[in-house]
Amino acid sequence: MDNGTKQLRIISYNSTGCNDDKLRYLNASSKSCDIIFVQEHWLLKDNLHKIKCGIDDFTGIANSGVDENQMVLQGRPYGGCAILYHSLLQFKQTPYQGEYVVLHLTFLTTKCC
């Protein structure tokens, strides 16, 4: 039954890093979804733009799981999460203070892509 509504399509991806191949995979996946949850992108704060701006027609929020306040970073980075969403969708980012890394968005539209 088609009542003029569309389904919101969501995928989740544990990327274990963020390189060109993984960004190409996310770009390809974005053609069949509206929202992408990404975990373990391993990006430092200064490199978050790679995942937030690297997907065609998508925008989003992201944070790093790495504590950059350490004097010397050892080993490879770890953690990090992002919420990427189609640019036609409207969200409001809500600040969150707490012990855990949390990204929080409020869905503001009734139209899906």
Outline of this structure?
The chain is 12% helix and 25% strand. With 113 residues, the chain is of the alpha+beta class. The longest helix has 10 residues, at 20-29.
How many helical elements? 2
Main beta sheet: 4 strands, mixed
CA distance, first residue to last residue: 19 Å
Please report which band the strand proportion falls in: under 5%, 5-15%, 15-25%, 25-35%, 35-45% or over 45%: 15-25%
Give the helix proportion (percent range).
Answer: 10-25%
The CATH homology group name: Endonuclease/exonuclease/phosphatase
Structural class: alpha+beta
Widest sheet, order of strands: 1-2-4-3
CATH architecture: 4-Layer Sandwich
**What is the class in the CATH system?**
Alpha Beta
Low-confidence stretches: none
Radius of gyration: 15 Å
Number of strands: 6
Molecular shape: globular
Keywords for this entry:
globular; alpha+beta; 113 residues; Deoxyribonuclease I, Chain A; 4-stranded mixed β-sheet; two-stranded antiparallel ribbon
Present the secondary structure layout:
Layout: E1 10-14, H1 20-29, E2 35-39, H2 49-52, E3 58-63, E4 81-86, E5 91-93, E6 105-107
Parallel strand pairs: 1-2
Antiparallel strand pairs: 2-4, 3-4, 5-6
What does this structure look like?
By secondary structure, the protein is an alpha+beta fold. The chain has one domain: Deoxyribonuclease I, Chain A (4-Layer Sandwich), CATH 3.60.10. Strand 1, helix 1 and strand 2 form a beta-alpha-beta unit. The longest helix is centred in the N-terminal third of the chain and has 10 residues. The radius of gyration is 15 Å and the shape is globular.
